[in-house]
Amino acid sequence: MKDDNCIFCKIAAGEIPSATLYEDEDFRVILDLGPASKGHALIIPKEHYRNLYDLDDGLASKALVLAKRMTVRLKEILGCDGYNIVQNNEEAAGQTVFHFHMHMIPRYQGDKVGLGWHMGKLKEEDKEEILNKLK
Length: 135
Ligand code: 5GP
Ligand code: ZN
Known about the structure:
alpha+beta; 5-stranded antiparallel β-sheet; 29% helix; binds guanosine-5'-monophosphate
């Protein structure tokens, strides 16, 4: 399944050139054009899925294994001090390209990469509501 209007479909298929770090039958791994830090890369499946909600289960499993392998290798090359794996779903969560992808963001001690949140406190009523609705 491909989407003719999707830039990541074209990049994954090699129709638009990209700095490719790895490729197999299911995925292409590329350097992000707007990196949060040196070495910021994206894992992109070759098939079109809007985001995690509709991603094929087999590809979902493979994507995490690939992220593991890529970060283990890249951290040696980059000499980074940590890694964030980030994956945005829908606009409210910061998704701007609507073809599933995983960010691999190298972290360097003291860098100014703006990931994170202010910690709240789990409310008793929220906990009860969520646990009950999931039953
Ligand atoms: P999102 O915000 O959807 O989670 O992430 C989209 C990412 O794709 C952004 O980090 C952006 O810099 C990157 N990006 C958008 N267009 C291109 C492109 O044409 N080539 C590459 N290599 N990265 C892109
Ligand atoms: Zn696509």
